[in-house]
Design brief:
The structure holds three protein chains of three kinds.
Chain A lengths: L1 E2 L2 H5 L10 E2 L21 E6 L8 E7 L2 E7 L12 H4 L15 E4 L7 E3 L1 H19 L1 E4 L2 E12 L6 H14 L1 E5 L2 H4 L1 H11 L16 E5 L3 H4 L3 H10 L3 E5 L5 H4 L3 E3 L6 H14 L5 H7 L12 E2 L2 E2 L2 E2 L4 E2 L8 E2 L2 E2 L11 H10 L3 H8 L3 H12 L8 E5 L1 H4 L4 H14 L10 E3 L6 H6 L22 H8 L9 H13 L28 H9 L5 E5 L3 H4 L3 H7 L5 E6 L22 E6 L8 E4 L4 E5 L12 H17 L6 H4 L11 H9 L1 E2 L18 E2 L38 E2 L27 E4 L4 E4 L18 H5 L32 E2 L22 E2 L6 E6 L9 H4 L2 H4 L6 E5 H7 L6 E5 L4 E9 L5 E3 L2 E3 L1 E5 L40 E7 L1
Parallel strand pairs in A: 9-10, 9-22, 11-12, 11-20, 12-13, 20-21, 22-23, 23-24, 32-33, 34-40, 35-37
Antiparallel strand pairs in A: 1-3, 3-4, 4-5, 6-7, 6-24, 8-9, 14-15, 16-17, 18-19, 25-26, 26-29, 27-28, 30-31, 34-41, 36-37, 36-41, 38-39
Chain B lengths: L1 H6 L1 H20 L15 H13 L2 H11 L9 H22 L7 H5 L6 H24 L6 H9 L1 H24 L14 H26 L7 H29 L10 H20 L5 H25 L13 H32 L1
Helix pairs in contact in B: 2-14, 3-5, 3-10, 3-13, 3-14, 4-5, 4-9, 4-10, 5-7, 5-14, 7-8, 7-9, 9-10, 10-11, 10-13, 11-12, 12-13
Chain C lengths: L2 E6 L8 H10 L25 E9 L2 E9 L8 H5 L5 E3 L5 E3 L9 H5 L6 E2 L8 E2 L5 H5 L5 H5 L5 E5 H14 L19 E4 L19 H8 L1 H31 L1
Parallel strand pairs in C: 1-9
Antiparallel strand pairs in C: 1-8, 2-3, 4-5, 6-7
Classes of the chains: A alpha/beta, B mainly alpha, C alpha+beta.
Bound molecules: ligand MGD (2 copies), iron/sulfur cluster (SF4) (5 copies) and molybdenum atom.
One iron/sulfur cluster binds next to helix 2 of chain A.
């Protein structure tokens, strides 16, 4: 924090905004015409990071007399260079001056139709009492003879809008309470990414980072709309284009991103596997792949066992009764531990040949019939992107929800992974699969393990089935090779950070204190969808919501608004009164009949608290408090701290299995200190209390403690100046935009992961113009402008390892060391991506007789094919100026004014046929329900020619609801949430709902 | 005053409501009393009460000029009524101008820190000076009470310069009002837009001014206050006819040269409005030639007045291009206020002419 | 040395960040709006909105097009508004911005009629109203900081700098990509030249940039009249004084005769 002098003010101009300023600007011309000095002169300026999307733009906040007088892009920030999209630019209106911000604790008694104001102490005490009560009544110590220590009657959701320190405390506290229904936004967002990328490359993260987009030769936007949803990405995409790169876009809708494209194709929602399958085929048939890369760095030469087979849409090992596969059928031939390979890739059982055969079915004709894209268009698209299959060319795929939110979401992304491996685009500057993270900290909250199946740092969360004991856990989850062989160090250090001295070798470091999840609701696990199904079914007593608006964002939202009334109590922590927290007075609700108690805790917004968030490119950046939160609002960290302390107090007097609670290390002070938590994330030596340099220093003997191993290095010293997340160094030695001294990127400040792949086996960059790391034969050492993502030196002896050692294992998180074209053993729905139709589709699956993903859970729903009642393909999407379930933008007047009403996009032809004019109110109807919307009649949507017929589509934003400054329409008794028409069937692996493709109809309202 | 109110309850009530409307405007801004918008910054008040008002009251100084400068004695009897009419009407034009300006209290800036290159400055200056000048002309003509004789005589001795100034201001003033719109080149329908609007406004204002004299004379005759002098009025009519021919001639030539006729026959109000407007100039021109029938003179003059009003409304409203989807139609309050600004001077004039001009008869 | 802004329509992604940043910097409120047929909202500039982004979609032989065009005061080199203003409430500064001085404005709204780009807007509902329009962030510019909107622009659609540099940049872009750009810089000559310049990949008639705006500066309309006034006034005065004198003499002669 600092005072802005005039001089400070003038600074930043030369450096910042390199794109928006030409030449130099000199202040103070002779006649300034009576112009007053800028309002920010003399203000106190703090830096922060935008709380909206995963780009992680820097923002400065100017404060005078305790009031925010302005916010604007931080010109020093290397990602945004002062730029912001409309949301970031509106940050000021999220601040304490917005009268809609919550400033008092509110409580709604059972059956009441209004809020009452309560004191924070009362509310925390009452909430803790209820949680304890539920837990004590429902606690399961043992199940089937296995110690499970869990409760399934309280759930916690949300965290993506919170800081890392807060998300971490959620993970720590909830797990210690035994909660296994622990979920957050990542599930509905990038769960398919994490599963898919981890199965392909070993980690689930965006491979490169925002600035790196400028190094690309072909930017392929497929399954996202970054111009609207990650607008600052276009700063870097534009720079690539200025240098001659091509931008290609495949999206069912002609988006703002598409408007900037050199080439655009429009394909039917739900058909990317066909689209990319065709590309893989084209690439293989025409030898457009990068052979040396494929041979050396992928498992293409590996030989697959005879068990693997594929026929008519089914892989071997399918059990139709269980709708699941026996994944063991898809494995490699081995010599002892070693996978058999044929380096010529000629053996018909090599992955390469199997792949070639598999994708030969994706002929341009077939693909065109499925996607609705004409053959010549397909070939043009394929040729443009496959032009990057050369050592000196880099192509990147940018995707997000257009890819993840499908019943085949994981396989969508697998398809991208396969083509990128074939083209040699992984690990290189300007390449990669850039899974653009959604919320500002969904990366961080995933890192913190606020998910039922992962602990902090992506260690699997124990399950009753797989990990009855610590030994089972180690047997199952600790491979002999790959970096995960270090897993015990990470796990034990985390358990030490949680349970301190009570975690001993004798009690397996209190491994059993972690809850082991069961089969979940109806045997469907504990992820978000089954969690909410459990709520709806009345099987959940309590629900804590840490910044989420489920009544708007969850599929089949109408049923959620009703179902929430089956809770005994709900505790919502938010900065606004969300639609979810007032569900009891929502559309169709009768407050008197709803017995749910609701606690609404006012939270501090991002500029009113201190802490860190991780952006999509894994940069963990520190934010400062600029002003105090309004009224009695507190940061989530403080609420969590109070709740933790209260629960510890209650359990000190006894209760069901109090050990993990009373012994929980919870030493953050009365007023929790985010720095203290951050230091715990980093890890420390228990004996000396010294902060560790990074996670390579972690040990499995109980002498180190570390909250989240991948965050090792974020806070390597005791003082605030050691906080690596707060670093603001602007050096960029390579000119490639790595900015190694700006904040801290996990793992170990590595900016591009899998970077061994950017070099040939001998350690020479494929493209010397864009080398970040290379082997210096004379010095016998690595030149390291980025942190090597491979074994470049011996961990013990520190001896430098020559290139050939790492050439064998460029993907060091994968046990095979290779990039997985064939995802052996990993996934629930096949080793190669195969096209299946969405649950609801206008046509039969042209690829085989399996209509939908054979491994996805259908709940009570059935595939719908070519329905006359619902003839339109529907999809949901986002708009630049709105955010998610809407609380963050519908309550912000500057943004609400731009798009105050719900709309549905439709083609001009369709509108004309139905007699609908732009601006008319219409109803979108599906088998779930209906939503009213204004018709947005546009040439940007067109009908598809698929399966021999013409199919129209409509698209809706999901940002509107029924509560807030604007709701989406004039009728206060209605919800304008698009999710009233979506369904909850989701991906076979992660259950991410199929928000992006369903069938519906549009009728005049 | 009391008398007046007692005798004219309805009119008093209307004018009182007008005053209230003015107060509302002062508190709530122009938006509170009008349908004006960013697309239509000048509307009914501007075109009816200011542009048309100024034109209709142009007769005062014109007659004085004709009589004193050009020595056309014939019109001498018209000097007093026309000056009275001009003075009252112009006072209200100035009032309307202040009413229509966003910050009336700041108007002094125009005089003390003006942008002397601004037409708006000139328009204000002329309006202010012209009104003053007309008052100066008016005072010596009317103030006959012995106690004010000194002042009246003094003013009388300035009569020459004052009359010349008034005449010049009158000319500049009327043309300036036209000149204001010349800059809005792409926003006015070619049926009305013209680079020579200053000249067109001036000539048509003279016409309107004369026409109003005829109307006034006719009505005074009807109310038995003053006899309609067919000789004088016939001469006025002839002069008016000449002005009309000049006007129509220039206007048509200009339209032909600039291709403005293209809009005739077009859809919508504009085309019809234009045709009616032009008829209001052409018909009376023909009717007036050599005519001595008071009724005919009166009707023709009324038509001229209507034509000029239509012309001003044509420039400022009917021919004004609004962006798609926005149409300006004056609000009820706006109509009402405009009506009051027209009614008030008429009421005052008829009241005062009863006193003043009757007076003249006595002295004559 | 004057500053300019280049708006490169080919780069704009329609994020409306400029629109919000402008409100933020200028402490302007949001409007109560409804959704129209596209995302341009508020649909026009108004007293709370100095700049708006306009949306234009079209289908051509080569497929779809969607253009986003930021609109605001053009900061004319010879501003018609300033020429029209009777009280110097609008002035052109040396640095380029055409700035508004609230304390000098009488609210006559003549600037609104004069501006060929239809930019100035008025507080219709305030007792003490202002004219409102983009100030080119004159306060920032005077302190050497680029305007709020260009700072916020993500995509490089807005580039601020010395006029010379900005014009050069525009020309460079046109020259480097003749296949992409329409060979024209809108604003270079319009209304006598403006400080804001636009380049585009579509004919300007497809954009909300008025092609009918004349090239010569609009203040000439006012000046053409104003320049004639002194001459006219003096001439007319002399003439009429002459007539007055003559007719006065005649009159008094007549009077004498009458007597
Ligand atoms: N303005 C704004 N920005 C945001 C958000 C927001 O709410 N508002 N949310 C943030 C979050 S949490 C996330 S997760 C991201 C999401 O970012 P995106 O994924 O970019 O978001 P969407 O608009 O949901 O979907 C992107 C595009 O996918 C297209 N699409 C639909 N089906 C298919 C398909 O089958 N294949 C392909 N190739 N495309 C398809 C849609 O037409 C849409 O244009 O955005 C983040 N950024
Ligand atoms: N139809 C359809 N539905 C979708 C999607 C789609 O594409 N289509 N996308 C899905 C995706 S990707 C996502 S991520 C989800 C998002 O769904 P949600 O997470 O339910 O939606 P948000 O509106 O982001 O909710 C975040 C809440 O956090 C609050 N908040 C912000 N800052 C803080 C803070 O510091 N502390 C606390 N306690 N609260 C804070 C905000 O006010 C907001 O209410 O929606 C999903 N739903
Ligand atoms: S929403 Fe995303 S792109 Fe926009 S300013 Fe915030 S971080 Fe940057
Ligand atoms: S665009 Fe209009 S308001 Fe802006 S300087 Fe030019 S004339 Fe004045
Ligand atoms: S409204 Fe104000 S700024 Fe505009 S011309 Fe009149 S005085 Fe000048
Ligand atoms: S220059 Fe300043 S005032 Fe003008 S549009 Fe940009 S931000 Fe707004
Ligand atoms: S900020 Fe830039 S990219 Fe965004 S709308 Fe404005 S000009 Fe276009
Ligand atoms: Mo998301």
């Amino acid at each position: 924090m600092k005072k802005v002098s005039r001089r400070d003010f003038l600074k930043g101009i030369g450096t910042g905004g390199a794109l928006s300023v030409v030449g130099t600007i000199t202040p103070g011309t002779s006649d300034n015409g009576g112009v007053k000095p800028p309002k920010s002169e003399g203000a106190t300026r703090t830096t922060t990071i935008c709380p909206y999307c995963g780009v992680g733009c820097g923002i400065v906040v100017d404060v005078k007399d305790g009031k925010v007088i302005g916010t604007e892009g931080d010109p020093d920030h290397p990602i945004n260079e002062g730029a912001l999209c409309s949301k970031g630019a509106a940050l000021r209106q999220i601040g304490p001056d917005n009268p809609l911000r919550l400033s008092k604790v509110k409580y709604r008694a059972a059956g009441s139709d209004k809020w009452e104001e309560k004191s924070p102490e009362w509310a925390i005490a009452e909430l803790a009492k209820r949680i304890k009560d539920t837990r004590d009544k429902s606690f399961i110590k043992q199940a089937d003879g296995i110690t499970v220590n869990r409760t399934e009657k309280v759930a916690s959701i949300g965290a993506a809008a919170l800081d890392n320190e807060e998300a971490y405390l959620i993970s720590k506290l909830m797990r210690s309470l035994g909660i296994t229904y622990l979920e957050h936004q990542a599930r509905m967002c990038h769960s398919s990414t994490v599963t898919s990328l981890a199965a392909s490359f070993g980690r689930g993260a965006m491979t490169n980072h925002w600035i790196d987009l400028k190094n690309s030769d072909v930017v392929f936007i497929c399954g996202s709309n970054p111009a609207e949803n990650h607008p600052i990405s276009f700063k870097w995409i534009t720079r690539a284009i200025d240098k001659g790169a091509k931008l290609v876009v495949a999206d069912p809708r002609f988006t703002r991103s598409a408007s900037k494209a050199n080439y655009y194709v429009s394909h039917r929602p739900g058909t990317d596997i066909a689209l990319i399958g065709g590309m893989i085929n084209h690439c293989l048939q025409n030898n457009l792949y990068f052979e040396e890369y494929v041979k050396n760095y992928t498992n293409a030469p590996c030989i697959v066992t005879k068990d693997y087979a594929f026929e008519d849409g089914l892989f071997s090992g399918y059990d139709s009764a269980k709708r699941s596969y026996d994944g063991k059928m898809w494995d490699f031939e081995k010599d002892g531990d070693k996978v058999k390979k044929d380096m010529t890739m000629k053996n018909p059982r090599t992955v390469f040949q199997l792949m070639k055969e598999f994708y030969s079915r994706y002929t341009p004709e077939k693909v065109s019939d499925i996607t609705g894209v004409s053959k010549p268009e397909l070939i043009k698209l394929y040729d443009i992107f496959c032009s990057t299959g050369r050592p000196d060319k880099a192509g990147t795929i940018l995707y997000a929800m257009g890819a993840t939110q499908h019943t085949v979401g994981v396989q969508y992304i697998r398809a991208y992974a396969v083509i990128q491996l074939l083209l040699g685009n992984i690990g290189i500057p300007g390449g990669g699969i850039n899974a653009m993270r959604g919320e500002s900290n969904v990366q961080g909250s995933s890192d913190m393990g606020v998910l039922t199946n992962t602990l902090p740092g992506y260690n699997p969360a124990p399950t009753q089935k797989d990990h009855p004991t610590w030994k089972d856990y180690c047997d199952k989850e600790v491979p002999k090779t790959s970096y995960w062989s270090n897993r015990p160090k990470f796990m034990i250090s985390m358990l030490k950070a949680w349970y301190g001295a009570k975690a001993t070798p004798e009690n397996d470091f209190a491994f059993d204190w972690l809850p082991k999840s069961g089969k979940g609701f109806k045997g469907q696990g504990c992820t978000m969808v089954p969690l909410m199904e459990a709520v709806k079914a009345g099987e959940m007593d309590g629900l804590m919501i840490w910044g989420a608006n489920t009544a708007v964002s969850h599929p089949d939202a109408g049923s959620i608004v009703k179902g929430l009334g089956n809770l005994k109590y709900m505790a919502a922590f938010d900065i606004w009164e969300t639609d979810t927290s007032v569900f009891w007075k929502g559309p169709g609700s009768d407050p008197k009949a709803i017995q749910t108690e609701v606690f609404l805790f006012p939270c501090a917004s991002s500029i009113e608290k201190e802490g860190s968030i991780a952006n999509s490119g894994r940069w963990i950046q520190w934010r400062y408090a600029a002003v105090p939160a309004p009224g009695e609002a507190k940061s989530d960290l403080q609420w969590l701290n109070l709740l933790g302390l209260e629960l510890k107090k209650l359990y000190a007097a006894g209760g069901a299995f109090p050990d993990p609670i009373v012994n929980l290390v919870w030493n953050y002070g009365e007023e929790a200190d985010p720095h203290k938590v951050a230091k715990e994330l980093n890890g420390y030596d228990i004996a000396t209390g010294a902060q560790l340099k990074n996670f390579t220093k972690l040990l499995d003997d109980g002498t180190t403690a570390c909250g989240c191993w991948i965050y090792g290095g974020v806070y390597p010293g005791p003082d605030k100046k050691d906080n690596a997340m707060a670093k603001r160094g602007k050096e960029d030695p390579t000119g490639l935009g790595l900015f190694p001294n700006w904040s801290y990127a996990w793992p170990v400040n590595r900016r591009i992961i899998y970077n061994r792949c950017s070099m040939d086996p001998a350690g020479k960059p494929w493209n010397e113009a864009k080398g970040t790391i290379w082997w210096d034969e004379t010095k016998k050492d690595w030149v390291r402008n980025d942190v090597p993502d491979f074994g470049w030196k011996d961990a013990k002896t520190e001896a430098i390892k020559p290139p050939k050692d790492s050439a064998a294992a460029p993907f060091l998180m994968n046990p095979s060391g290779l990039g997985h074209i064939f995802a052996a053993l990993k996934l629930k729905d096949g080793p190669f991506p195969e096209h299946y139709e969405p649950l609801e589709s206008p046509v039969k699956n042209a690829m085989g007789s399996q209509q939908v993903n054979p491994a996805c859970a259908l709940w009570d729903l059935k595939p719908l094919v070519g329905s006359e009642e619902f003839p339109l393909v529907g999809t949901t999407m986002r708009l630049t100026n709105h955010w998610q379930a809407g609380a963050m933008t519908r309550n912000v007047p500057w943004l609400a004014e731009i798009a105050p009403e719900m709309y549905v996009e439709m083609s001009e032809e369709f509108a004309a046929a139905k007699g609908i004019k732009g601006g008319d109110w219409v109803k979108v109807v599906s088998a779930r329900g209906e939503v009213q919307a204004k018709a947005m009649v546009t040439s940007r949507l067109k009908a598809f020619n698929v399966g021999g017929k013409t199919v129209e589509m409509v698209a809706m934003p999901f940002h509107f609801g029924f509560n807030g400054f604007v709701t989406g329409g004039p009728d206060k008794s209605k919800s304008y949430a698009a999710n009233q028409v979506t369904h909850r069937v989701g991906d076979a692996n992660t259950r991410i709902p199929e928000y992006k493709a369903f069938m519906c109809n549009v009728v005049k309202a | 005053m009391k008398n007046f109110i007692n005798q004219n309850k309805v009119i008093s009530l209307i004018l009182l409501m007008g005053v209230i409307a003015v107060l509302v405007r002062l508190v709530g801004g122009l938006g509170a009393v009008s349908a004006l918008s960013d697309a239509q910054p000048w509307g009914l008040t501007k075109s009816l009460n200011i542009l048309s008002g100024a034109a209709l009251s142009a007769g005062g100084s014109l007659v004085a000029t004709l009589v004193y400068v050009f020595g056309i004695k014939k019109f001498k009897p018209l000097v007093r009524p026309s000056l009275l009419m001009g003075a009252i009407a112009h006072t209200f034009v100035l009032g309307a101008l202040l009413y229509d300006v966003g910050s009336p209290l700041e108007v002094w800036r125009i005089i003390f820190a003006p942008n002397i290159k601004s037409i708006m400055f000139l328009a204000f200056l002329c309006e202010a000076f012209y009104t003053t000048a007309v008052l100066c002309e008016f005072v010596p003509e009317f103030v006959t009470a012995p106690q004010f004789k000194g002042i009246a005589d003094l003013m009388h001795s300035f009569k020459g310069p004052v009359i010349v100034c008034t005449a010049i201001f009158a000319v500049i003033h009327q043309s300036t009002l036209g000149a204001l719109y010349v800059v809005s080149v792409s926003r006015i329908d070619p049926l009305w837009y013209s680079r020579i609007m200053p000249i067109l406004f001036l000539v048509s204002a003279w016409a309107a001014g004369l026409a109003m004299l005829v109307v006034e004379a006719y009505l005074s005759d009807k109310s038995g206050r003053r006899k309609f002098d067919v000789g004088v009025m016939g001469a006025v009519g002839n002069t008016l006819a000449i002005f009309l021919f000049i006007y129509v001639g220039i206007r048509f030539a200009d339209l032909a040269i600039e291709g403005g006729f293209g809009g005739v026959g077009g859809k919508g109000v504009a085309s019809v409005w234009f045709i009616v407007e032009m008829l209001c100039f052409v018909l009376p021109a023909v009717m007036l030639l050599g005519s001595k029938s008071p009724k005919l003179l009166y009707i023709a003059s009324l038509l001229v007045g209507l034509g000029v009003v239509m012309n001003r409304l044509g420039v400022a409203i009917v021919g004004w291009h609004n962006p798609a989807g926005i149409t300006y139609f004056p609000s009820a309050v706006e109509f009402f206020v405009s009506f009051c600004f027209l009614l008030a001077p008429i009421v005052i004039y008829s009241y005062m002419s009863g006193i003043v001009i009757k007076d003249e008869k006595v002295t004559a | 040395m004057p500053y300019s802004m280049l708006v490169d329509v080919t780069k704009c992604i329609g994020c409306q960040g400029c629109q919000v940043s402008c409100k933020n910097w200028n402490d302007k409120q949001a409007d109560k709006t409804t959704l129209g047929t596209d995302f341009g909202n508020p649909s026009t500039m108004n007293s709370n909105t100095y700049t708006v982004v306009k949306f234009d979609e079209a289908v051509a032989a080569d497929g779809n097009h969607w253009h986003f065009t930021k609109a605001q005061c053009m900061h004319c080199k010879t501003p018609a508004c300033a020429g029209a203003c009777p009280s110097h409430a609008l002035t052109k500064t040396e640095a380029g911005p055409v700035v508004y001085h609230r304390d000098r404005c009488i609210g006559c709204r003549y600037c609104m009629l004069a501006c060929p780009f239809e930019v100035p807007t008025f507080d219709w509902h305030k007792a003490i109203p202002s004219i409102n329009k983009c100030s080119f962030c004159a306060d920032r510019v005077a302190s050497g900081i680029e305007p709020a909107c260009s700072r916020t622009c993500p995509s490089g659609a807005l580039t601020f700098g010395n006029t010379e540099d900005v014009v050069k940049l525009a020309e460079q872009r046109l020259a480097a990509h003749p296949e992409k750009y329409v060979n024209y810089i809108y604003g270079k000559d319009e209304a006598g030249g403006t400080s804001w310049l636009y380049i585009s990949d579509t004919e300007f008639k497809n954009l909300p940039l008025d092609e009918s705006v004349e090239k010569a500066a609009y203040d000439r309309y006012g000046l053409s009249v104003m320049n004639k006034v002194p001459g006219f006034a003096i001439g007319a005065a002399a003439l009429m004084a002459g007539f007055f004198f003559i007719s006065g003499r005649k009159a008094s002669a007549g009077k004498d005769g009458d007597k």
